[in-house]
Amino acid sequence: MDPAADAPAPVPPALRDAVLAWYDATGRELAFRATSDPYAVLVSELMAQQTQALRAAEAWTGWMDRFPSVEALAAAPVADVLRAWAGLGYNRRAVHLHRAAKVIVAEHGGRVPSSVAELEALPGVGPYTARAVAAIAFGQPVGAVDVNVKRVLGRMAAGGPEAFTPAAIQALADASVPVDRAGAWTHALMDVGQRVCRPRRPNCADCPAIAWCAYAAGVRPTSGPIDRPAARPRRPEPAFESTNRWLRGRIVQRARDATGWVPFVDGIGEHGPGAVRAAVVALSRDGLLEIRETPTGVEARLPR
Ligand code: SF4
């Protein structure tokens, strides 16, 4: 395989067969993998974006009971949608999913569009999610490339993802998809990346791709097409409680637990009253809260 070529050689059929056989025999049984319904797949892919797959699968089951169709989701109040999202984190994804449902009903007659371009135009749907939905729900031979897939394919083909430009890894991913099992291949590559081809110390001995893998054969990219700056010393990560993400999560949680307006006049954790107010206002701009000013400060609730 020529790693830097614009049109890389296809992944050997024997490698694909081995990975798919491994997936068929040992793939994780996540609830959402049993369906190819486009709405259900869209929900699962948005949930799994930044949440552990097992947790997303649990939440997905409850979500599909609560909002069984795209019309049911589009008609629901935002407050109900945010409550159903509890425990998944990154609440903005719930608002995006709700907005996407409204667009699908208004502009696509209630049917999730099948083209990558139309999927990417939906709120909250980026290149990875659009291709994952196109492959899993519609069987299209498009490769969904996230950091896991980039690492797996990069190692298989050239000993590491550093050898590839973004366009080349996308071309390789697209060329790797078997036309008759696009969805299974998408799930299988994800499992390889999470279960054996981990970022540090890949477990090649247990990997179905070992016989064809450049990394396992000792190949390492000597240089890549991307000029990377010299690594800077890592700064220690700030404590999670001091981050804006933590604060936003606490504020939404308080609003979620309440039935009416909640005053936000004091600090929360390490964040002072000014930072709390700024976060509340930002959350209302993002559509996650309604706010009103009172003589003592700002109050908020989930949008009606
Ligand atoms: S053989 Fe090793 S490096 Fe290659 S894909 Fe499998 S786990 Fe990753």
What ligands can be seen in this structure? Answer: iron/sulfur cluster
| Overall average residue pLDDT | 92
Strand and helix order? HHHHHHHHHHHHEHEE
Q: What portion of residues belong to β-strands?
A: under 5%
CATH class of the domain at 13-144 and 179-194: Mainly Alpha
The unreliable regions are: 1-6
Q: What is the tally of beta strands? A: 3
Dominant shape: globular
CATH architecture of the domain at 13-144 and 179-194: Orthogonal Bundle
**Main beta-sheet annotation:** 3 strands, antiparallel
What is the distance, rounded to the nearest whole angstrom, between the alpha carbons of the first and last residues? 55 Å
Widest sheet: strand ordering:
1-3-2
Number of helices: 13
CATH topology (fold) name of the domain at 13-144 and 179-194: Endonuclease III, domain 1
Tell me the helix content. 40-55%
What would you say this structure looks like, in words?
There is one protein chain. The chain has 304 residues and is mainly alpha-helical. The longest helix has 17 residues, at 92-108. A three-stranded antiparallel beta sheet has the order 1-3-2. It contains 13 helices and three strands. The protein has helices at residues 13-26, 38-48, 53-66, 70-75, 78-84, 92-108, 116-120, 127-138, 147-158, 166-176, 182-196, 244-257, 273-285; strands at residues 262-264, 290-294, 297-301. The model is unreliable at 1-6 (pLDDT under 50). Helices cover 50% and strands 4% of the residues. Among the domains are: 13-144 and 179-194, Hypothetical protein, domain 2 (Endonuclease III, domain 1, Orthogonal Bundle), CATH 1.10.340.30; 241-301. Residues 152, 155-156, 196-197, 202-204, 207, 209-210, 213, 215-216 line the site of iron/sulfur cluster (SF4). Iron/sulfur cluster is lined by residues 152, 155-156, 196-197, 202-204, 207, 209-210, 213, 215-216.
